[in-house]
Specification:
Chains A, B, C: InterPro entries: ClpP/crotonase-like_dom_sf, Enoyl-CoA_hydra/iso. Chains A, B, C: Keywords: Isomerase, Lipid metabolism. The structure is a homotrimer. The first copy, chain A, is of the alpha/beta class. Chain A has a single domain, classed as 2-enoyl-CoA Hydratase, Chain A, domain 1. The first copy, chain A, contains 11 helices and 12 strands. Chains in contact: A-B, A-C, B-C. At the A-B interface, helix 5, helix 6 and helix 7 of A face helix 10 of B.
Chain lengths: 221, 221, 221
């Protein structure tokens, strides 16, 4: 489901569940891993990465379809995952080895930085083409984390961004060939791992206070 | 005054009143047209365009000068126009065939996308040079819709942006020669017309909630 | 400590106290100068500039260390300085002749525009590397005044921006060689000096209302 390794000061959390959709089991595994990582003392940084063609495709729509009575509870748990990453007391880097769609794209946005694979894979918020909209927490995350023009285009057109397009749009900060995505993310994370975790968490929480308030608030408007 | 045509799935609303200033008659005609367009069922998108040298020069200062007792009521109606476009249940594109000044520039910003003519015409918010300031709704529209640096420069310097400058500043998304502005806008609109109107309206309203709240609130601070 | 001259319509306020840290004496001198400038009637604009290698290094940490009981009162006074510049009834330009660090960088952000020296000096918000965070007023100033991606990177990484990097990141609007920084800033200021001061102040205060509210509110969260 997941795999957590340490490479020097850098924790590498690999999602290893196909499309890496947020099934309850997947969420439980990632929550547990992040809770452990958050206890880190001293230098540290987190890299998350997927497997194969997928970083993450977000919400587990199959599970949701079979558990519609748990929709709000489920969304609260997804919000909790986003908040956990945003509140992690260390620098964070998403290594986008493949598709980051919908909730998977939003999870990537919760990281401080992102490195994206050049030859394959898209960043995409396709909700507008699925007849879906965004929860208050998701809406604020996208709006506060992305350049205005990018947030506007991403949610209103459902554009699929290649790595080069995502770099120009300010969605990711670096691009790399398939084999270099994880090493580049780890290198970036290692360069930031010396920063005081508590200070990073405080500055990040202040910067994204409205997002965190919404993520910790009601899941639906 | 105005002309409303349909080109495939795309409604083309042409303002045809010279400078296309927001006279009560102009507002009434546009309100009626938009109310009709909003009832569209199925695929649809809106393009607005002006005539000759002008997209729109905004507030009708002559009429306002002769009707100063109706200032606040008039501003509420202009706010209502902006909100109507921002809430339209379909993708929207402004075809900037010519000058988009002051309120005319803000009306352009209410659209999802804009295509601007390259050889002639400016986007300009000249209020700072007219001794005017912005209503709370206008201020938030400019601030939330434009990249930060562009909003700052536009309102504090009153800069006149050519099409190329407006593209670089994130005010418009495409530029075209005079004859190509409307076709390019229609082509863009047509490519988006298949999206579900209710979904577009919900996502857009969530994204611009503070703007819409201000536009629906008191016209003056 | 400081020197205030007038060059045509442009007030040139030079900080002349080494690193130009915000000692109580420095603050008193600048407050007095700005109070005088604010009384200007007719065309006017302000340029601020430092001396030698420094624009300003911000908070006077030595003085603070010896006066820890006055921490909150001191921060309120620094907030007051930021608000004074943001509320000045005329266009303002920071001539970054050298380092603009921490509070000195934030002071630069309070100006409408900035010109930065190319061969030497950095813009840097190093708080994350000092175990410090930002007050609510400082946090909002950085967040509302800079492009989103720049605010994010600046506070979470403590990156030192050269003039060229600061230009690309939207922190400054022009760059110039050492001898040309002040002349370029004065030229820019002079080109804007004809704008009505009251109008400029109103538009700017509306645009940065949340920042000003925070700067005038409690210094600590």
């Amino acid at each position: 489901m997941i795999d957590l390794q340490r490479d020097g000061d850098v924790y590498v959390l690999r999602y290893d569940a196909g499309e890496n959709r947020f099934s309850p089991d997947f969420l439980g595994a990632v929550e547990g891993a992040l809770d452990g990582v958050a206890k880190n003392d001293g230098p540290g940084a987190l890299v998350t990465v997927g497997t194969g063609k997928f970083y993450s495709n977000g919400l587990d729509l199959d599970w949701l379809g079979a558990n519609q009575d748990k929709f709000e509870e489920y969304l609260r748990r997804v919000h909790g995952l986003f908040a956990r990453v945003l509140e992690l007391p260390m620098p964070t880097v998403a290594a986008l080895n493949g598709h980051a769609f919908a909730g998977g794209g939003m999870l990537a946005l919760c990281h401080d930085h992102a490195v994206m694979r050049t030859d394959r894979g898209y960043f995409c918020l396709p909700e507008v083409d699925l007849g879906m909209s965004f929860t208050p927490g998701m809406n604020l995350l996208i709006k506060e984390r992305l350049p205005r023009a990018t947030a506007h285009e991403a949610v209103l057109t459902g554009r699929r961004y290649t790595a080069e397009q995502a770099l120009r749009a300010g969605i990711v900060q670096r691009t790399a060939a398939e084999d270099e995505v994880l090493p580049a993310a780890v290198e970036l994370a290692a360069s930031l791992a010396g920063k005081n975790g508590g200070t990073v968490a405080k500055i990040r929480a202040d910067l994204y206070r409205p997002v965190l308030d919404a993520l910790h608030g009601p899941a639906l408007s």
